[in-house]
Amino acid sequence: MATGVKKSEHDALVSTAHEMAEAARAAILPHFRRAELAAENKSQDAFDPVTVADRAAEQAMRDVLARRRPDDGILGEEHGTVAGSSGLTWVLDPIDGTRGFISGTPTWGVLIAVGDENGPEFGLIDQPYIGERFVGGFGLAQVDGPLGRAPLAVRGTRDLAAATILTTFPEVGTPQEGAAFHRVAERCKLTRYGMDCYGYALLAAGQVDLVIEAGLQAYDIQAPIAVIQAAGGIVTNWQGDPAHSGGTALAAATPELHAAALEILNAGA
How far is CA 110 from CA 15, 139, 158, 161, 164, in A? Predict the structure, then answer.
């Protein structure tokens, strides 16, 4: 558990995160579902798209930090790392789910987290088009959206046979990791695909029970970790260790589901 954030800073950090989310919304929404939107491919081996909206949103968030929190570090997907002197680092993914963004689906989101080298203490998942914002940490666990404000709380499912599981497979991870996911999914009641960060938000909101993914970067998972933990859930990697550096992730509503999924993921490993 991260310990680097002083309680006296909580309100300022939360306020900064919300201002960053608003700045990202303003930068992104003019480009969503526009026929003229183009995507570049960042990878030589696969399709890893980036758009002008990704870059503009991250720059807008960095501009907020430069004004409000100039001593903090930054780790962002599009514009790299900035070392800070405060001991705190903001971890930013301007559009998590760019494949969904360029396809017009509303499952992408803006991810903002803040913490230290031990992991995030506060996180925010924002879906600008729907107008939903999920926050967790510093005593907060809530969602604001079209239906107003509601508390976040995971549901109490304990049996895999009753669980709903979400993932972004097969877009992420190796074939072997995909096979491990399917071993868990075949034991669950319902499986849904291609959810990106919105799957983690739904787990925190008590709508689903498991999210299992691989091939993640720190900026993909830190905000979801904070939101899910604040809602009472569990997030680790597939070895049961902290997941905030990226790699694999197993997010579960209850300890029982987490233990059952962990055992299956590692069966034969």
Answer: 16, 21, 30, 32, 24
